[in-house]
Amino acid sequence: MHRDLTQREILNELEPVAESCLNSHLGMSKDWQPHDYIPWDKGRNFAMLGGTDWDPDQSTLSDVAKAAMITNLLTEDNLPSYHREISQNFSRDGAWGTWVGRWTAEEMRHSTVIRDYLVVTRGVDPVRLESARMSHMTNGFTAGSDAAGLDSGAGLLYSVAYVSFQELATRVTHRNTGKVCADAIADRMLQRIAADENLHMIFYRSVCAAALDLVPDQAIEAIDTIVCNFQMPGAGMPDFRRHGVLMAKHGVYDLRQHLEEVLNPVLRQWNVFQRNDFTARGERAREHLAGFLDDLATIKIPRFEEQRDRALARDRARA
Length: 319
Prior knowledge:
- The chain has helices at 7-28, 63-77, 79-89, 94-121, 126-139, 154-180, 184-214, 216-228, 240-249, 255-269, 280-318.
- The chain is mostly helical.
- It has one domain (7-318): Ribonucleotide Reductase, subunit A.
- Helix 2 packs across helix 9 (240-249).
- It is globular and about 65 Å long.
- One of its GO terms (biological process) is fatty acid biosynthetic process.
- Its cofactor is Fe cation; Fe(2+).
- This is Acyl-[acyl-carrier-protein] desaturase.
């Protein structure tokens, strides 16, 4: 019978792992400058300084690219909420504290460079963008671990499981957004951001793997809860559902990508379905997780793709 560990006990036990992952990250990460990715020569003043305000005809982005860029930016904008969530569940001391600070500083570049690009190129309405930012950041973000029904070290385990999947999902979204922008500069910028997200995912995935070894039952319960209730951090932003449907419809991020490029690779890395260190309690969570994944693969994804294909056919007919 495994004894549940408290969050403090888990943090203490995993501190050497966090330090090793931090050092590995610092060795792999590359510094880059947001201003280097912006076509500043395309910029001009708005009306307040004697220029012209935004007009839809000024944008070269498709509706899909606009939806994806706005969603990506507003997601990155909510960094203060993510920092609070992570810092509350980690520690301000040692490797944990160093990681939280470093991760936050790296993430800040993402919103800076995307906003500069959109404003300079007049890709989207800057007034509506600012209004959406104010609304989204005022509402904030919470991972909701208190409502997950988990005990002991749930906050920490819930957080590292969530960001293991979320960072990878964000990488996929940024990478595919670059493709639909039809602009080499935007694509290069978003590939740079995606590379950051991948390294962040590796840190969290490695920590969660160590947690699975340390407290298998607690960790698999957290993973099961996260996977079965997963929402992207931008779920509460203005127009999120409409933008999300448009992005899924055109291959920026859809259910099949979520399963095949995010969930399955991470679960394989953790060897979730081959482990033999769960008690009956952990087995129940693993069986529930397996059932959810099977339902996703055999029912929800085919249903979504059928609906998507019909919608795309209607669009082509109207065109």
